[in-house]
Amino acid sequence: MERRLEISVSAGTEVASCRMEGGAARWRFPSRWAIHAAAGVSSGAVSNLVSHFADRLDVPPGPPPPATDLDPSPGWVDWARNLTDRLVDRGAIVRYLSRRAVVIRRDGWRQVTSPSLVRIETGPDVGGALLAVWGQPRLGDWIRAVFEAAPAKGWSPPPGLQVPVVLTNGTAGALLHELVGHLVEGDLIAAGRSPLAGLGGANLTEAEIDVVDDPGRTDLPGAFDTDDEGVPAKPVTLVRSGRLCGLLCDRETAELCDVDPGRGRRADWRHPPVPRLSNLVISSGSESPEALEADQSRGLVITRISGATVDPVSRRTVLRVERGFEIRNGRRRRPLNPFELTGGVTEILAGIDPAVGNDPTPDWRLGWCVKDGLPLPTGSEAPTILVRRLEVL
Amino acid sequence: MSTPRDQGDRAGRLRKAVDSCSSLLDASNAKRWEVFAKASLTRQTDFVDGKLRRTAQIEESGLGVRFFDGDRAGFAAASSLDPSAARTAVDAARAGATPSSDPMPPPRLLGTTTIPPGPKMPAQGWAQYITSELEIALATVSSGGLRLGRAIVQEGSYRWNLSTAEDWSAEHDRMVASILVEVLVDDRPGTWREWIHIPDPSTFDAASLAARIGNRALLTRHKIATDQGLHDLILHPEVSAQLMAGISPLFLATHVDSDPLPGLLDTNGLLSAYALTVVDDRSDASAPVVSPCDGEGLPGGRTLLLDEGAPRHRVASYSDARRFDEVPRGGAVRFSYRDRPSTGFANLRILTHDGMPAGELLAASTRALYLLRPLAPVICDLERDTYSLIASGVWLDRQRIRGWHPVVELSGSLGTLLRRIDAVGTDLSWFQTPRGFVGAPSLLVRRQPVVG
Asked: Is B338 in the A-facing interface, judged by CB distances under 8 Å?
């Protein structure tokens, strides 16, 4: 059962708020899963929900409804209104997103708590410009970055150029979200549809990095204390010293992959839980980010990414670069115009340089992750990473 | 699934919910109000490797309230149709009201248009039946080269009621169906994904759908090849749809000082070649969104946006039309009770009455890059007259396939691209895009620079 609150503020229109409540009963038959979902969390709504499975269901007595502490602190609307007024020429929408849930199983129940989020969208891009935990100490800095104008005159690297690329300012988190996070999700692994399927224990990269999916990082948007199947949250190490060692599974795929569950996440009460990542945290190295750039005679440094995808047919990734610089003789030269980088999944991982930055940085730009059309908040934190070769599209 | 009796119950429950809101709003200081109540039932059936894996039945309902007290306006929504939901929404709309002029259209503009009756819900077992048929048809059309890995069938029906303080009311009900398929091509590791809108389940044809999937998916079996230089482009409908989504902000009402459209027009005032005519159409029975009125009660219908390359009208909600000095034509969308009505497209569509069959389109070029599927949304910088299109495609030499190009980017002047559209196909299909549903056919674009 779930309660949600979404408040949206945009310049020139009335404040909109939406309170949603609903629940879903799920039952495992010998041959299939069956789900019945309906609006409402009143005792009548829940009775109606479980009546479909009354002959099979054994609900523990007295489970509480989801908590009701959804509302933002006083003044949030004024804060958001001020922001949309300052961003009026970019058609900004500022949203407050809050969620509480409870998972009831035969063996008991657990409340699900996750941090409230603030999301800023700016037109004409439909996607978000910022996603962060409301109350994050660095939120003010990130909002200032949203306001920063793009360089008036940038350089467009020529298509086909293959160069070393330094991913700084937390942008490596977005890359590894696609290349590791999604590709170790249990449904893709169990169906053999991930390029990383069957590579458990293999060395993906020379870099001795650890990649951990950590829902306990409550400063990042993908945090929760219990997953949507009632499994207490704990970090899962996906890559240890460059070697693939973990998977992200819900209860169903955990059985198939023979690992622990804990990443069954629902887009909302209307959708079943599926394996999804939470907050991807990449371990830091010892190099200063400046030294990584200084070592390059010719290359690119990326400071902001606006999107990343992996094509399921060709298994190549496409990174949309929003901001960055050309590197010549170890120094930043011309700013870059928006452009795209591409490469094969395993080739990019293999091309991560062993020298890793000592500057763990959360990403605020991306985070609204969409899988099979269903969005969920996720987060990442990464140091500066050098990929020895990526191709400009 | 829903029965006639369910439908009757649903209409009654919606009216009762609207009445609950109406009583609360009439007892308040509301000068004007509007209530939108919606209830839907969706059944989703998942198959993996031909076996039923999961069934889900989702009942959703809720209501949204817009409120204006003469000085302030507010909007709030709450799920369920219970009296408590009505109170939650009304109280929140009043509590959250902020200084504003009246955002709602005047009663004289409200009305409905007649739309064709919708198809009936398919019988129980339809999802299993079409999945089995599709599995066989895919194997047949590809001589075993294609295998259905996963299929998700969605069938659903919804009903809504839009009522205002002035006793104006509209109701509408419809069924919707779609299928998402993941197809395995030979022994390749990747999967081919395709979402298909099914306008009428009674006319679903598994063989033609399998041919449609196979026509593209099988092309990725060819060896990888690259090329560059000036080439004709043939855009598959899915790529055309993403391009339309990219340029669609040009068809939204905006402030004259920030309007990028004039800067994209040629000396004859054309945005594109004559081949392109674009509409937003709520009355098309084959489209995903069919409605007798827009999201705030203006009569629905077809809005001509681009007429043989010449810009005509803009889409706008009532308040945006007033703000940007446009004539209100019913351009507010409201897909859910959760949404405040806002400017947007119901079904953005390229007209194909002067089009040519896709086969002729492919034959119309001796050397072309056939863009099969987009790999990311098409980015159009309307201010700077640039576009960036990332797709996979195949190289065609005299209608023979020379090779598959897994990732290719095209970029350049958006205006030049649009003015080089030489022909449209007749193979219109519907796609989900970041800008909503877009119906698009294949497009033939002459002489575009391609970098390998």
From this structure: yes
Task: Compute the radius of gyration of chain A from its Cα atoms.
Answer: 22
Distance separating alpha carbons of residues B354 and B371, to the nearest angstrom: 22
| Cα–Cα distances in angstroms (integers) from residue B181 to residues B3, B53, B193, in the given order | 28, 14, 6
* pLDDT confidence tier of residue A125, bands split at 50, 70 and 90: low
Name the CA dihedral angle for B280, B283, B287, B288, rounded to a multiple of 10 degrees: 90
Do A122 and A92 contact (CB within 8 A), yes or no? Answer: yes
> By CB neighbour count within 10 A (0-12 exposed, 13-18 middle, 19+ buried), where does B269 fall?
exposed
Tens digit of pLDDT for each residue in A267-291?
A: 999 999 999 999 999 999 999 999 9
CA-based max dimension of chain A? 73
Q: Are B376 and A17 an interchain contact pair (Cβ–Cβ within 8 Å)?
A: no
**B73 contacts on A by Cβ (under 8 Å):** 14
B319 close contact with A: CB closer than 8 A: yes
Token representation of residue B135? 């599995």
- Confirm or reject contact between B191 and chain A (CB < 8 A): yes
Interface test with B, best of A5, A15, A89 (most B CBs within 10 A): A15
Strand duo B169-185 + B429-433: pairing: unpaired
**Closest-CA residue in chain A for B88?**
A19
CB contact (8 A) between residue A340 and residue B62: no
Q: Do A16 and B379 touch (CB under 8 A)?
A: no
Residues B75, B78, B81, B84, CA torsion sign: negative
pLDDT tens string B378-429? 989 999 999 999 999 999 998 899 999 988 989 899 999 999 999 999 999 9
Q: What is the ipTM of this complex?
A: 0.89
User: What pairing do the DSSP bridges indicate for beta strands B32-48 and B146-164?
Assistant: antiparallel
B residues 132-171 lying closer than 8 A (beta carbon) to A:
149-150
Q: Beta-carbon neighbour count of residue B327 at 10 Å?
A: 9
Please check whether residue B155 is in contact with residue B122, taking contact to mean a CB–CB distance below 8 angstroms. yes
Judged by DSSP in three states, A214 sits in: coil
Distance CA B320, CA B13 (A): 32
Mutate to test the interface with A, among B407, B409, B411, B448 (most CBs of A within 10 A): B407
Q: Residue B46: which H helix or E strand, with range?
A: strand B32-48
Alpha-carbon gap, residue A45 to A27, rounded angstroms? 17
Among residues 278-317 of chain B, which lie with CB inside 8 Å of chain A? none
The angle, 0 to 180 degrees and rounded to 10, between the axes of the packed helices B126-141 and B206-217 is 50
Cβ contact B410:B278 at 8 Å: no
Q: Hey, of B55, B75, B79, B317, which one would you mutate to test binding to chain A, going by the most A CBs within 10 A of its CB? A: B79
Say how far apart CA B361 and CA B378 lie, in whole Å: 22
Residues of chain B found within 8 Å of residue A312, distances taken between Cβ atoms: 190-193
Q: What is the pLDDT of residues B86-140, one digit of tens each?
A: 999 999 999 989 888 999 999 999 999 999 888 988 988 999 999 999 999 999 9
> Chain B residues with CB inside 8 Å of A17's CB?
75-77, 92-93, 96
Total-model pTM: 0.92
The whole-chain average pLDDT of chain B stands at: 93
Amino acid at A307: G
Are B59 and A38 a contacting pair at CB < 8 A?
yes
Q: What is the DSSP letter of B104?
A: S
A13/B319 Cβ within 8 A: yes
Confidence of residue B452 (pLDDT cuts 50, 70, 90): low
Token couple for B260: 């990028």
Q: Residue ranges of the alpha helices (H) in chain A?
A: 43-51, 76-86, 139-147, 171-176, 186-190, 251-257, 289-294, 345-350
